[in-house]
Fold this protein.
Amino acid sequence: MAVQVLYWQDVPSLVKAADGTKQQLPDRFQQDIDRRAMEQGLVGSDAYLEHWHWEEVEGTLDDVVQRLCESRAG
């Protein structure tokens, strides 16, 4: 089974299952995205939007969320 992960550059933000169920990752992920966007001067620009992309990842929604959270602990 595969799910889709929404990334901004290499930072995951949201996991979506095939049935449409979604799970937002913890706030620290969005905070990292915001920090990086500000450092790169991309806040509020079309360039910011261009960095969002979906990737397919093997696993269930819960398993993928857990793996992403563990891989970016801290």
